[in-house]
Amino acid sequence: MAFGDLIFVFVFLPVCLLLYILTPGKFSNVLLLIFSLLFFAWGTPEYLVLMLCSLAFNYAAGREISALRASGRRVLPNIVLITSVLADLALLGYWKYAGFLLETVNAVFGTSFAARELPLPVGLSFFTFSLISYLADIRRGKTEGAKDPLTFALFVTFFPKLASGPIVAYPEMEEQLAHHPFTWRQFGAGARCFLVGLSKKILLANTLADTFYTLSAVPPEELTAASAWLCALSYAFMLYFDFSGYSDMAVGLGRMFGFRLPKNFDYPYLSSSISEFWRRWHITLGAWFREYVYIPLGGSRVHPFRIFLNLMVVWLLTGLWHGAGSTFLIWGLYHGTLVVLEKLVLDNVLEKIPKPIRIAVTFLLVVVGWVFFFSQTPVEALTRLSRMFFFGGAADGAAAYYAFGALRPLLLGVLAALPLGARLGTELARRGQPWTLLSVFYFAALFLLCVAGMMNETYSASLYAQF
Amino acid sequence: MKSKLIALEALRWLAAALAVLFILFLLGSTPDPAIPFETVEQAAVSQFDLSDVQPGDTAMLRRLYGLSSTDYEGVLFYYPASNMGADELLVLKLADESQSAAVSEAISKRLETQRDSFDGYGAEQFALLTDHAAVEIRGVYVLFAVCENEQAVRESFLNAL
Known about the structure:
The structure holds two protein chains of two kinds. Chain A is an all-alpha fold. Chain A has helices spanning 6-22, 25-41, 47-70, 75-109, 124-139, 149-157, 159-162, 170-178, 184-216, 225-256, 274-280, 283-294, 304-322, 326-345, 347-351, 355-374, 378-388, 397-416, 420-431, 433-456. Chain A is built from 20 helices and no strands. In chain A, α14 (326-345) packs antiparallel against α16 (355-374) and α16 (355-374) packs across α17 (378-388). Chain B is 52% helix and 19% strand. Chain B has six helices and five strands, in the order ααβαββααββα. The chains are: A mainly alpha, B alpha+beta. At the A-B interface, α3, α4 and α9 of A face α1, α3 and α4 of B.
């Protein structure tokens, strides 16, 4: 089940909300946990067993680390932490990387091992990172962890953030888990946020997907520069609206239930450097790697060569987090190299370049990166890039045809990637009553358009859910 | 304190052991992904009457299912030859099993859309879609067949795995 599915919008969410409003506060966490487990088990109910095992394992580990730490032990909490994190990573590794590892072994040694892969549990990458941060935060004394197993289970499985994040650390949610009253004001704000996200997903991402999937099916060597660019740009905006739409929906859903989840995007395509891009794109993943990998490795307070190494480790892992494949690895290292260059070499030079040029160059570099991200193999990515940079024809009739079809969603995409809508909304809210009424009609119209789009679409899962 | 720690450690090991056993159980019930796609598609087609369907291309798969054929290792797709037809055959070999949830949902939605189209309008087609639709997802192999003899198609598909 995805947030953009009719069954979610018209059955799951209203039923959950209605029961949530009717349920006394002390039982609200139990209710949310039941619905979260239902959401998790929707497509693959057999994995409920696995989730319950993981919850029991990590709850026990958290309590153990907390108790050992309180008793002044130094080594044992580390042992429990390391073995637990390794177990969590083993689970993630099995599902995401076993096939890739066997393929690599087969390619190197000429063997023919076949991986028996299983469907990916919903949100595995996201909740594994939540679990690791939970245990690490207890070890570092940032929290004592959840004493109540149900509270812990809700922290891990809370359905708005389960499938595609945002990745939230336990200390950020600790107080909210104890107290998250329903208010109509919060509900209204959450519903607006959810609708903005739904519109991004259904009206923009899904429309751009038609162009992207049609063009990506054309063999790369047959692409002209125009169609190769159109394909890459469609993907860049489709991915942004897909994932930021899902994140907005997650934040909106959280608010409906009285939770404040962190935002995951901040107009990333307006970034004037790659480092800034990563402070604006998938913010909570970047923060996670900074907090639990980069800083423990020494961060920026070490020798420049160590900074270089630390950054490359972080970016290698970022690439791997997105998927087990050479293209993801290259994509991660590509961004790592750019960040290192900015940090260690170009820091002073960049400041002297006018901001609009920096934004344009950053966007271009990001789009080049996306070509590796969506290509199946490095050779395919290089072929696409060679076509983009005119090692083929400039344009053909097919490119003009697709460009005509994609023009409207792409232009809308460019406008929606700017903070114009948010500024307009704030301005309308500031002006008071008649404008508030206008905004109600605006959101109602958006909702109707989304419903029409959802009825046409067969499946609306987030692209990031597969990571 | 000591007994509490022992209990927590026991719970941790018990949960880990259960998870491993559960994964082994799941693996035991999954077919070998090395079976060639041609074998599986031939098995399904051999029992399917192709006279009322036409082959679908990438754009049609995207339009009807929201799926991109380049995401899969193997695709065999036939859709109704006329607007009044409901027979359909889709056989996929997934690139990996992480795709199965999305594919399963896409198939459910396609079936639902088709049923809605014929509900109160084409009784025969509605009955076909309700009583003669076969959906099987075994490992990386997926079958969706709507036809009178869907049981034979299903059995042939499963026998090939």
